[in-house]
Amino acid sequence: MKYLLLLLSFLFFITACSTRNESQDCIDLVIEETITIEEGDFICLPAGEEIEIQEISNELCPCEVVCVSPGIIRYSLDITLADGLSLPGEMWAGPDQEFRIQMETDSLPYIFESTEVAFEEECSLSNGNPDIASTQLTLIR
Q1: How far is CA 31 from the centre of its chain?
Q2: What is the pLDDT of residues 93-102, one digit of tens each?
Q3: CA–CA separation, 73 vs 61, rounded Å?
């Protein structure tokens, strides 16, 4: 009986420690396909990596302001590699720019492009940097 209880406790622990709640859908990303992502989304990459979008930050040039650079959108990520190793990471890019997923010492072998950005409220002089509701990503290669 105590072995059964020990086994059940172990199985519960393994289930509770998984990186992703299985009820959450993983958005499969394939080459040349555009997807819309939001904070909290899980993306599954072709070689088995999973990315959780922790935060999307608006670091774009404020509305109605002339800037030298268009600025960037920064994505804070939790990355789970195909071998199960979990790492923090980030990616960032300006509109219509190519970018990679950066980890502590390396980057993943994919190139993305950010296209459309949807804001939580309209960009205006009174709110030059509104929060980002969603963005579109395309896996280029």
Answers
A1: 16
A2: 876 678 889 9
A3: 10
Question: What type of residue is 15?
Answer: T
Identify the CA nearest to 52 among candidates 32, 13, 78.
78
What pLDDT, in 10s, does the model give residues 11-41? 343 333 444 445 468 999 989 999 999 999 9
- Give the closest residue to 56 by CA, choosing from 44, 72, 69: 72
What are residue 98's phi and psi, to 5 degrees?
Answer: -85, 150
Q: How far apart are CA 137 and CA 7, in angstroms?
A: 43
Which has the closest alpha carbon to 127: 83, 54, 62, 50?
A: 62
Give the pTM. 0.76
